[in-house]
Write a structure and sequence with these properties.
The protein is mainly α and about 180 residues long. Helix content is about 65%, strand content about 0%. It has one domain.
Amino acid sequence: MTPQARIWVYRVLYFLLGLFAVAYPLLPLQFSPARFSSPDLLFALTMVWIVRQPQSAPFLLVAALALLADAVLMRPMGLWAVLMLISSETVRFSYKSIQDRGIIAEFTLIAALLLAMVVLQNLVLWVSFSQVLEFAKIVQFVILTLASIPVILLFLHYVVRVRKPDSRNRPDRLGKIR
């Protein structure tokens, strides 16, 4: 398979997994009311995917899925989508240094971005006199989303086979081979 065809296959796969991540909180898996807020699987999927295959999750595809998630999950339209786009582009900009440092640096960056997104979202909601999320719900959301990242990472690595590119014996941006 050519590299261009592989990128398109990964894009379609990311889109389908993103649709599942958007639809998952709506699935009737329980008959009793949910006590816990559901994790943001789209955020976790997008961040982990961009570290592994940044060219197969383009900006417009991430934006479309994030806006769809805002509309379907009845969140303030566009607020979480903009924050997610900023975070995804931050990860995309620094993915090479994240790949070199390992899984701990990747998880730390994603956790810091998620915390910043939650704080900025509540700040914007508070400034606009909208209803702010409760602190307990925020903590549950952050913990569940961060707990879903290793599961998604293992799923992408072993089931879907989306892996980091091999950077050994390839020139870096200055032309030096490591």
